[in-house]
Amino acid sequence: MKPQDDYRNGDGGATSAASRSDDSEGEEISALEQELSLDDPEAPARALAALNALRKARQHYDVLLAAAGEEVAAHRAVLAAVSPRLLAALGAGPPAAAPETLRVSGVEADALRELVEYAYTGRLRVRDAATARRLYRAAAKLRVEPARAHLAERLMRRLTAHDCLALRVLPDLAPHHRAQLDTFIAQNFDEICESGALAALPLIRIELLRETSADGGEEAPAAVADAALAWLRDHHAADVDLEELCSRTHLLFVDANGSLRDCGELPAARGDAPELQEYRREARERERGQRRRDKPPDRAAEDEVLGESSVIAARAGVGTNGGGAGAAVTRAVVAIRGRLAGARVAWRIGNAEGPRGGRLGGTRPDEAPPEPDCAGEVRAHMTVGRCAVGAAALGQRLVVCGGYDRARVLRAAEAYDPQTNAWSPIPDMKRARARFPAARLGNSLYVFGGSDGQTELDSVDVYEEDAAGGGSWRARARMPLARSHAAAAADEARGALYVVGGWAGGRSLRAVHRYSPDEDRWSEAPALVTGRSQCAGVVWEDALWVFGGCDAWNCIASTEMLPLDGRSSAWIEGPPLGTARRSVGAAVWRGLAVAAGGSAGAASLRGTALLARGAASWRAGPELRRARAAPALAALHDVLYAAGGFSGKEFLACVECLYEPDGEWTTLCAPPPPSRALPAAGAAAPDGELSPEG
């Protein structure tokens, strides 16, 4: 046996008991050794407790773990002993002369603190089920298996209809725990639907065309959901993104053989409804993008991954189609490639008649084509794709200025007129800038700070239109602090503008400043609770609000509000967004606060969130048609517009709009007819429908 093997097995080499002789001298030495030796089983715990006290006092530590803007001091050896993930990240080399900083992504700060405390004490403090889930995700991420296994076992003992879906999406669940959860979800699906828990899941919308309502509701809910899931499996590659699946409604029809097919495959025909024309056009664009892949998908891997997809639970209800007739609706919870999603499968009934009387299948050869319908016209694109712009509704137009294109920071500004469906240039800004906010006050558009590609700016310019429809830019008083990635909002009632947060000096700011245009003067306002950049701001319900952003380390979901009526002189925590995001667009529209698009750090987002007056939480709105980080979002003529932004692959020039809070985003110039009837916020859902709508 090798010497190191002897050591690992606890032998002491030449001095071990196995190597000594059995004479009396050896017995005397053994007895003396036993008398003089110290066996203190509590010593390791005392040493760890002392190390724990030292690292909390920031003494003799050799590593800092950074998560969500906070730092936790620790010792490399202790972390490496409890977390294989940290062992690999820290490496095997000697520690540096100064403590190194290790960034831990995807772990919340409070969970990281508790897990480090567990490494030193063996105790894990868990206050409630929500804390347990956060700790579970952190333990799974860092591969602290004893903590992960303990939390999984305890959480499985406390299943409720309200939180079972939140448990099902946890990573690294054991197969028997997944099976236990799936059984619970199937058995308690009605209660889960009534609790509103499904609204937290991404939603896959599928609509099936049927010429008449006959037999429309006879299919078993599981059979309808199974058929729709089979279609998803058969028609999407293994690397399909769940967010992409949820980004649009999938419009299908049943062919003569009883198989489901995508309406994008239907040939063009005279009299096609504009909604179908748009759907087919987007299907062609997706197909072209798929052809540009560098390599074909691995079919074996695809079969293996898609084999994990299943319908966990389903139920049938009755909804309405675009014409108001009753239609079968199936709600389901499905697992797609190991991820959980909701599914809504509905029959669209209407004797094959499309929106506004156009036939979904086109006209017969002997029919005359219908008169042109402006609803089929697509919103005009901006002259250049851009993101990180300043934008606002000014007069009767949507104004977008500055930002980035693929190559440079822009000075150019342009305005969109919905009446003519055309963009036209307006005078360039006084300097190129991007990553800046804009806000309208009265008949003037203000732009604040930003970046010229090299440095943060403190300049402020205002654009004012003249009676002839022209306009010009002029400089106003500089901000007290140069910054980029700030938010801005206008308080129309008091004639003031606010600039909130931002980025300067290598950190996210808490600073808030108030600008009075009448005096051309800046003053300080109460500072934010959380420093944040790449956030969005609005004035809504007589308060200044800020949504999401980045705390210099991670995207954040928190919101804050500052009452403007004197109720409070400090910022108050608001309902958090459902998804942590930065570079988010925000607007006030139809009495709602709206947050749309943004970035989760690694991907641009399509999600829209709506906050109603007095609501304790945001509700999910319709998904944008395109993922958009740093879009221009503004309400004009009771319509919500999203223009430009970064899709994750390209700078966008396209524009889409939303006509109803429970409608769908569209690139068409006129609203599509409703494809479903939805209950108002807080209202009871009719005939088995879920509330709220996801």
From TrEMBL:
Coiled coil: none annotated. It comes from the Eukaryota. SUPFAM superfamilies: Kelch motif (SSF117281), POZ domain (SSF54695). GO terms for molecular function: actin binding. GO terms for biological process: protein ubiquitination. It holds the Pfam family BTB. SMART domains: BTB, Kelch. Residues 61-128 form the BTB domain. Keywords: Actin-binding, Kelch repeat, Repeat, Ubl conjugation pathway. Residues 277-288 have a biased composition (Basic and acidic residues). Residues 1-37, 265-306, 354-373 are annotated as: Disordered. Residues 24-37 have a biased composition (Acidic residues). Pathway: Protein modification; protein ubiquitination. Probable substrate-specific adapter of an E3 ubiquitin-protein ligase complex which mediates the ubiquitination and subsequent proteasomal degradation of target proteins. May have a role in synapse differentiation and growth. This is Kelch-like protein diablo. It comes from Vanessa tameamea. The gene is LOC113403602.
